[in-house]
Amino acid sequence: MVIESFSEIAGILNAHPEPAALLSLDYEILAANESYTQLYGGDQRILSRKCFEVSHGYAVPCDQAGESCPLKRCSETGKKQRVLHLHNTCHGEEHVDVEMTPIKNEAGEVIYFLEKMHLVKEAAASPSGLGMVGRSKAFNTMLEMIQRAAPSEISVLLLGESGTGKELVAQAIHQASRRSKGAFVTVECSGLTESLFESELFGHEKGSFTGAISRKQGLVAAARGGTLFLDEVGDIPLSLQVKLLRLIESGTYRTVGGIEPQHADFRLVCATHKSLKTMVAEGRFRQDLYYRISAFPIDLPRLAERKEDLKLLANTLLKRIPGGEAVAISSKALRALGLYAFPGNVRELRNILERAVLFADGGVIEPEHLPSEVFESPSEVDSVPCQTILPLTQVEDDYLRWVLSHYQGENRDLAIQLGVSERTLYRKIKALNTKNKDFLLK
Ligand SMILES: Nc1ncnc2c1ncn2[C@@H]1O[C@H](COP(=O)(O)OP(=O)(O)OP(=O)(O)O)[C@@H](O)[C@H]1O
Q1: pLDDT of the residue at 438
Q2: What are the DSSP calls for 190-249, one per residue?
Q3: 133 alpha carbon to ligand 1 midpoint, in Å?
Q4: What residue's CA is closest to ligand 1, atom 23?
Q5: Which CATH architecture has domain 150-299?
Q6: How far is it, in rounded angstroms, from Cα 80 to Cα 331?
């Protein structure tokens, strides 16, 4: 991007409906629109401060604090960069989609950077009453994929174990899409027989079969202008897969008993916990259908892969569980949960907390309020890799992260076992927090 004058820059900043700023090569905020200034507290003195200090509270650029820095990447490549970051805003911590564009002079040299932001409303980084929450690396990677896919019409395939939040992700894609004002319609594909599948999906005419006493609209028609979410798409029998393929390929369908072809208008999101690739190889899932539905696959992390989100998820779910709003969870109970493998993922965490709330007479969930399987399951040991040579600081960080998510006792005792003073342990945890912003400071 080449610009002629500073007033042109002001025009660009003010035309952006969300926060936008002009940055110097040295991370300095040179100009900002009203919404950028408001986002970071409304103080005009924001100008001439460094962007990493304002949005993250860091003393050094993001890449030196263990995060990707779009400005650095932009200046290295000379090309536009887009990343998802967690920013400290006037609402607390928020997920922000950052787009950084280099601005060049007539000689082609980069002279400024234009930072445009989009506040991600579909996920929260602090306990929230609605929608998805998360802030771990695994969650943020998934959120970035959602942000990339949502604005387009591409068919998304959500891949994840049961209870990982596939339905919530499908809703988030719908909310972030141009179709968000239309309906979000879920089709539960498991257990659908041939006749049910057709009449549920396509609807039926009056008298088209015994019991069809009136005309019924199908789910495809209900999703007109919106999103059709096919949950457990791997459970659709082979005989019905061809009907789904025809619908997707032609964009038309016939109601049961109807003659006229109907025009379909939906964005498709599918989900499965099965390996469709294996099913294709075994002849149990049509390859042509697989390619149609899997244009943009998104992997959902298991809860065991995003243990840093455990505290956030527990506090969020407690807000949502009837009777759980006034109940807290002790750090010992959290540490015990941190050792558990959660085969049922977030849904299992919710069930565990729902039960624990009924035992927590004192208003705090303690380890004794957790079910016995939490303590019986073999603990997950993320071993420190030893076939590769790594910097010692990284090995120490990895080990400390592992210890902190597995150790159930007091920090005082842990410091003794680690052979350091309690102050040193706190210092190391604090340094780790600055890099990872996770739940380690208890
Ligand atoms: N990131 C998240 N933030 C808040 N709640 C979540 C999150 N992920 C999942 N949940 C909660 O966990 C439960 C299970 O989520 P959901 O039904 O979306 O999972 P699923 O993967 O579709 O499960 P299944 O495959 O069994 O249908 C719900 O109560 C949901 O609200």
Answers
A1: 47
A2: TT--HHHHHHHHHEE-TTSSTT--S-EE-HHHHTTTEEEEEETGGGS-HHHHHHHHHHHH
A3: 11
A4: 163
A5: 3-Layer(aba) Sandwich (3.40)
A6: 43
User: Do 303-376 and 6-119 have the same topology in CATH?
Assistant: no
> Is residue 383 scored above 60 in pLDDT?
no
State which fold the 6-119 domain adopts. Beta-Lactamase (3.30.450)
Ligand 1 pocket mutation, candidates 140, 159, 162, 167, criterion most atoms within 8 A of CB: 167
The reply to whether ipTM tops 0.85 is yes
pLDDT tens digits for 295-341?
Answer: 999 999 999 999 999 999 999 999 999 999 999 999 999 989 998 99
> 184 vs 98, 393, 416, CA distance in Å?
28, 48, 54
Query: What is the whole-number distance in angstroms between the Cα of residue 332 and the centre of ligand 1?
Result: 25
The residue extents of the domains of the chain are 6-119, 150-299, 303-376, 392-436
Residue located nearest, by CA, to atom 8 of ligand 1 = 165
Q: Is the pTM of this model over 0.80?
A: yes
Closest Cα to residue 154, out of 292, 327, 49?
292
Verify whether ligand 1 is closer than 6 Å to residue 62 (CB atom): no
Which residue's CA is the nearest one to ligand 1's atom 13? 347
CA distances to 40, 365, 404 from 331, rounded to whole Å, are 32, 9, 11
Average pLDDT over residues 21-30: 93
Rounded mean pLDDT, 174-178: 97
Nearest CA residue ID for atom 29, ligand 1: 347
- From the CB of 374, is ligand 1 less than 6 Å away? no
pLDDT at 385 over 60: no
Question: 303-376 adopts what CATH topology?
Answer: Helicase, Ruva Protein; domain 3 (1.10.8)
Question: pLDDT, tens digit, for every residue of 251-292?
Answer: 999 998 888 899 999 999 999 999 999 999 999 999 999 999
Output the residue whose Cα is nearest ligand 1's atom 28: 347
Instruction: Count the residues in the chain.
Output: 442
